[in-house]
Amino acid sequence: MISKNNYIQQTQAINNSELPDNLFKAHQWVLKATENGTNWNAYENPNIKKVIDTTIDKLNAFLIEQNNRPEKTVSTYKAPKHETSPQAKAKKEHQPKIVHVQTHTEDEQDIELVERIPEEIRFMRRYLAMNGKRKTKEDLLRFINALHRAIIEKRIRKTSPYAKQMEYIQDKLIKRYNDMKSAFTVQIDQKIILEFKALIAQQKIMPSVALIKRYISLNGKYGVKENAKRLMEAMTRAFDKGHITKKDKYIKVFDQMHSNLSQYVKNKSHSVLNIEEPELNGLNGVLEGCACPAMNSEPSCTQSNSIYQAQQKPNVSSGVMNSMDFKRMQFRTLGFVGKYRKLIGDPAKGFSAMVFGKPKMGKSFLCMDFAGYLARNHGKVLYVAREEGLDMTLQNKLNAKEVAHPNLYVSESIPPDLSLYDFIFFDSINSLKLSASDLEALRNANPEKSFVYVFQTTKEGNFRGGNEFQHNVDSVIEIPEKGLAIQNGRYNQGGEMRIFEEQEYLREAA
After folding, report:
1. Is 0.70 surpassed by the pTM of this model?
2. pLDDT in tens, 423-456
3. Which sequence spans correspond to the domains of the chain?
4. Phi, then psi, of 227 in degrees rounded to 5
5. Architecture of domain 338-498
6. In whole angstroms, what is the distance from residue 385 CA to residue 399 CA?
7. What are residue 362's phi and psi, to 5 degrees?
8. Which of 408, 436, 412, 433 is nearest to 422 (CA)?
9. Beta strands in 195-264 (DSSP E)
10. For residues 385 and 431, what is the distance between their CA atoms, to the nearest angstrom?
11. Sign of torsion over alpha carbons 318, 290, 283, 434
């Protein structure tokens, strides 16, 4: 039998390649903590002692059973034919932030599976990640401020089982911040490293919750079919290995995810993964209202689904508002001035527009000039020039309109992540092969981003595509003849603009 006294001698006879992954990692951790069995001082720490004793027990059980363990029967995961919506499940089962779940495999029997890693554990991870890194005074101040926010917001409490560790981190950082005069390399005491790692190792995100996070991170992303395939494979592996079973709390959510991913991968006409709003709300409920791809030590993000951001919002209890209250509401707009205010009006954040006209009439020149105006005055702009590509033609248009600006970016394809930009131009929708449902998914996933879509036209001068494109935008801009733009939409009816005339660039609104 393996014990603390004969650990090195007994474990040398074990074939490490036969150990389960978690048990192999635990064994390697013990070797590191004890300096290959030469220094057992760390064993005096209660947290480290618990991990070492657990590892010894598992190794002994492995030695006894390795030759008698029956073969596991594995069935490939298949989503059921009839799925139910996940939001019903989320509403039925309201659980606290951390739920203790019994694990199903022997090598994880003492790991606590949780829906959300405690805030304190995240700060421990963040603190350990600093070890050996060169940090400035500003780096330490950001960490201290984040820790203080968590305490003020009561995400970390005095009654926490990790209160001493949080106090230690706070005291160390503040003392170092007050003493330092220049950047330095962080050196954390080895005993603290081992203690924190032992605490971190005691908890692990539930496999189903980890997969839900990966699924949500793909929502509204363009060209992520390969990512979707890999996620489906990961779901199948988790089911085959018994990490997720039919008794899992979120098995119905799991089934719905698999079904939606399968439809997205098989449907060649859909380039964007779209999670329907009811399903997304249910998933956000699972993750406590956050659709972030991963939890971190900062406060959870919030996303608004409203295109209009009211500065003053009256108290509305049932969706019915008195007309006098509505009359007094103030809506935040972008503050357009000059020719684009005359053409489009003053749209709200998150507006959408479509532009169409026959070739050589000036639609791309108009869009390039509009992109330059937005970049100079309102934020970061991405111009996806799929039809022309990044060639001399596009460069000439940039030069002709003198719109090049640090806030204006150009690309031949749509990047998966649009979060860096405030305004996105697609030139053209037809070349990008985007469907109306793709555009709707992109807008739903990026509610505060503004989109401008450029369309090719038929011989008759109509835009190529179904009427749903026109119905789903706020402004429709047509180029009926060379150099003339006519707009109809919710912000301004019948606006007009000459595209090629000489112009003075507009000053920003006072």
Report:
1. no
2. 999 998 988 888 888 898 898 888 899 999 999 8
3. 7-65, 90-107+206-286, 116-203, 338-498
4. -60, -40
5. 3-Layer(aba) Sandwich (3.40)
6. 15
7. 115, 10
8. 408
9. 203-205
10. 9
11. positive
